Amino acid sequence: MADPKGFMTTPRQEWPRRPVEQRVRDWDEVYVPGALLPIISKQADRCMDCGIPFCHQACPLGNLIPEWNDLVAREDWRSASDRLHATNNFPEFTGRLCPAPCEAGCVLAINQPAVTIKNVECAIADRAWEEGFTPPRPPERLSGKTVAVIGSGPTGLAAAQQLTRAGHTVAVYEKDDRIGGLMRYGIPEFKMEKRHLERRIEQMRAEGTKFRTSTAVGRDVPAAELRSRYDAVVIATGATAWRELPVPGRALNGIHQAMEYLPLANRVCEGDLEASPLSAAGKHVVIVGGGDTGADCLGTAVREGAASVTQLDIYAQPGAERDEDAEPWPTYPKVYRLSAAHEEARELRTAPAADADARLFAASTLRFTGDERGNVRSLHLVEVDEQRLAVPGTGRTLPADLVLLALGFSGPDQKDGLIEQLGLALQPRGTIARDDGFATNAPGVFAAGDAARGQSLIVWAIAEGRAVAAAVDHYLTGSSRLPAPIRPTDRPMVV
Asked: Rounded to whole angstroms, how far apart are CA atoms 314 and 326?
């Protein structure tokens, strides 16, 4: 604890964002470059080094947060990097993309603003790359065992890196043309520039991990054939089966899933396309769904030059403070949060009819109507109460040339045939069934991440990848020294 009074003398200060008018003209990350390091040591000093650090419990990775806060406060960046990477393979991802349940569990958050744990984590990760603290760590010897990892999102990459470093020969199979899963084509560039992803992939290549892109297991390679070629298989395909909106007019042109829209914008940033065929430029856009994916669509549509953008959230607008009765500390509370995209929409007034920023809360879609050519032109909605029942007399109509459905995901996509070909058992909600050791009903086949857990956070995805790697290592060798931060049955803290 570098400064025992730091939490009393230093106010919370977050990584400043670039001015809205500037950042919406490009696809660079929203934060001011270089503005984090000058403030982060003092922010780390706010850590109380409390006797029971609930931030550990709130984070499924078990990050050693008080330890690396103290090291950053003392500006011992190498040791801080060692502590951080001891529990997290990809802190530069979580430091940008995780909603930071650790901060909700910070003891200081009981009656003060929490420590900026997420910013400290990101600063350590970035400094580690700048100073060369993260060299490749190839294994000293090979085990002679082979593992196929299907899916290259955070779960698949974490599992592959852990197993490679344990000495196994690992190949990652990805159906898209580039590695990264939703981090590649689902997360916009302004939230995480893909250079961070490329850097980790090159590190993994140098350690010995092999990558097979444009290969859908079950379609391009029969699943049984793949299983016969490897000693173990890890399924980490994510939960990509999107939820639908079965209302009248859904078949009209111009209504698309968020994950049909976002990848095209990312491909423009990658240089594959000059412009997205689903570009929001000049269109009235309505996003159905109030989560992070909807916010990603919002920020993307603003940068593409939409005429207006409105986001519908079926839930009522949350309050600014934690409801101590419904969601007591240290659970992750539902409070009003202003993401970078919502800040942009509020300042640019993209949706003049919205309740706050670009969002209409407690709003449910009734139907769509279109023109004589079958193109969507309007979205009809109604306000709902806490039971999601329509409130009489609250119907409204919004202009809509492009509608994006961001309603979440129900489980793994089964169209490729992977699940059927391996004969995998499923849970009633559509996720892959597994036992307490991450093993499916197919011998030698393991499942991890959203494909088995269901839609979750990136920090849980990485924890799943690390844990399944330990399970596979034990299966192959009879024992394992790899860390297993969570069990398949573990869930976030709730009341």
From this structure: 19
Confidence (pTM): 0.97
Q: Rounded to whole angstroms, how far apart are CA atoms 248 and 209?
A: 48
pLDDT band, residue 1 (cuts 50/70/90):
low
pLDDT digits (tens, 9 = 90+) for 160-186: 999 999 999 999 999 999 999 999 999
Looking at residue 440, what is its pLDDT? 98
Rounded Cα distance between 300 and 402, Å, is 13
